[in-house]
Design a protein that fits this description.
24% strand, Arc Repressor Mutant, subunit A, two-stranded antiparallel sheet, 303 residues, 7-stranded mixed sheet, 42% helix, D-Maltodextrin-Binding Protein, domain 2, 11 strands, alpha/beta
């Protein structure tokens, strides 16, 4: 069996469907179907039981998938070690970050392009942590209280949060107690985030007008006047039409902005150059991240 055959078996085992395996491999559904059939015919063993709702590995399939997973780890480890020997700051650097931090990243990329014209940046925007071990990305820009132990990185800034409302909403409801206000919440997909946990701990008795699954939508719903929301200051402070309910950011909750990569890649020239540039670029926005950059012209509501 060739490595490409084992990759097909591993993808089907992990995803449980041909369509899921096709997405993981970047090929068509029919390609996965044909290649899996060819593998089973070649070795004379059925690797998966077919059901209407998906594929379940047989004992032989489980053995093949386990072996494929071990081989994949070895291949990826080799790729990382070889990439770590690259001495030139050139080539592709794949960065993963969140939807809100992606906006700040884009603001700094033209300057990075001027400094490192031979580095080509690919940006993957997602609110889930990409698997840097499997080379889904090489650098992650993430807000997290504690990064995974398998990654190395640089702590750039604390991320402060504050309660925001639209000017129109606060003009109608300024004197209310916090729990008497209408609030905008997060759905279950973001329940484990810093904001999601704060909402659960502090607003269980409050009236939630709507729930959203992304921070830009949380900001937009607040701007539309649907109620109050807890937002990171770097998202709330620059938004015209929003203002804090209190002048100071909350002591809690806080998160931390990290630039992360895999240990095997940190000495790669293009990765090191990118990390060095981004660390300085994002550090220049530290006052914004830490909730200290408030426009003096913004009126402040009484709490």
């Amino acid at each position: 069996m060739e490595w490409d055959d084992l990759r097909v078996v591993l993808a089907v085992s992990r995803e449980g469907t041909l369509s899921g395996a096709a997405r993981r491999l970047g090929v068509t559904h029919s390609t996965v179907f044909r290649r899996l059939g060819a593998v089973e015919e070649q070795i004379g063993v059925r690797l998966f039981d077919r059901f209407r709702d998906g594929y379940v590995p047989t004992p032989a399939g489980e053995t093949a998938a386990e072996t494929a997973a071990r081989l994949e780890d070895e291949v990826l480890s080799l790729e990382r070690r070889l990439s770590g020997q690259d001495l030139r700051p050139s080539g592709v650097v794949r960065i993963t970050t969140t939807d809100t931090l992606g906006t700040i990243l884009m603001r700094h990329l033209p300057a990075m392009r001027a400094v490192h014209p031979e580095i080509q940046v690919e940006v993957a925007v997602s609110n889930t942590m990409a698997n840097l071990t499997r080379r889904e990305a090489e650098i992650a820009i993430r807000p997290t209280p504690e990064p995974p132990e398998i990654l190395v990185g640089r702590r750039v800034a604390d991320i402060a949060h504050a309660i925001y409302g639209s000017r129109a909403y606060l003009s109608r409801n300024e004197e209310k107690d916090l729990l008497a206000h209408e609030w905008i919440g997060l759905d279950d997909a973001l329940a484990s985030t810093v904001i999601g946990r704060w909402i659960y701990e502090n607003l269980r008795a409050a009236r939630i007008t709507c729930r959203v699954d992304a921070l830009p939508a949380l900001r937009d719903a607040t701007l539309a006047g649907l109620g109050l929301a807890l937002l990171p200051c770097y998202l709330g402070d620059p938004t015209p039409g929003l203002r804090r309910l209190a002048p100071k950011a909350l002591t809690e909750p806080r998160s931390t902005l990290w630039l992360l990569t895999h240990n095997d890649l940190r000495r790669t020239a293009r990765i090191r150059a990118t990390l060095d540039f981004l660390a300085k670029a994002f550090a220049s926005d530290r006052a914004l991240f830490e909730g200290k950059q408030i426009k003096p012209s913004l009126p402040r509501a009484r709490r």
